[in-house]
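re: that chain from earlier
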Amino acid sequence: MKVRTRSSAIIGALFLAVTLTLTTASAEEPPAGPSAQVVLTEVARAQGPSAGAAGPDGKVWIAERAGTVRVLGDYGLGEPVLDISAETTTDGERGLLGVAFDPEFAHFYISYTDLEGTSTIDEFAVEDGQLRPDTRRTVLTQEQPYANHNGGDIKFGPDGYLYIAFGDGGSGGDPHGNGQNLDTLLGKILRIDPTGGEPYAVPSDNPFVAEEGAKDEIWAYGLRNPWRFSFDAGTGDLLIGDVGQSEWEEIDWAPASSKGGENYGWSSMEGTHPFRGGTEPANHVPPVHEYDRSGLGCSVTGGFVYRGEAIADLAGSYVYSDYCDGTLRTLRIEDGAVTEEGDLGVQGGEVISFVEAGDGELYVLAIGGTVSRLDPA
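^ sequence. v structure.
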């Protein structure tokens, strides 16, 4: 979809401890899907694991929020291969928030907030599977007016470009109107070519290139805190877990054929609901799924569409959770609509992130320190 219209806690409530009642964006609730039989197998302990990425030689690299990156081996996590703990802080929702490798494993990228709270994307060269700290350079920065809603997730898309998620800048209710403002990178998902220029290049087919009053880097907008997003390794579709303000958590979807420009509605909308008297934008793309906070849910943690081989019944299902509820749940999405909902019946704790390994298997990170693999029961 190409739209050419101008227009709180790491994941919403990081320290709330408040059962997740699921609702959908449609009038009819999709049927429950066949529940795969799964278990969570703890494979390592970490200090505040926050993100991860599939790395060279089939290894999974795990970021710890305080600023270290360690590689997962057969016997847990190794010694840090990167330590920027002197350059970041864990106050508010800050810290080392995202990591990614380019498709050739030639570069490693980190997303963190510096000591002033500025969101920063840095690049390192990788040779023979090893990080080269001496090649470090800063690709992109974005000042943050508050200590929450940083976003910070980064992923390479099927097109080979780097996608970056930034929240609306923080506080509450988007006081600066960043979500609907195309003249700021806040409240957006960006798309850049990190090695195509200095410090980066903007793909010429980005939806707002050369549009007056809009930032060229923007791919999608109208987001509050897109804490975790992913691309379906099977289809290329984009899925975004966007943390709500006070009542609704949402998952947004865009097909692989999208040309960008989607407006997901914030802060005029919270999910499919007008926010504080807001008017729904004419180009609003409603979430593919939403749920309210009548139970323990408080902050959606977006995951991945499962494309591994270990759990056949889970293939093609989107796996996600909620920081406060911790239950792993699934959606099956066809042509932009949820056709099945599932509950895996396992509890991951304070789930802060998912990691997709190179073989498509999924790992679950809990802020309390567990790194767990989703296995067949």
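The chain has no helices and 28 strands.
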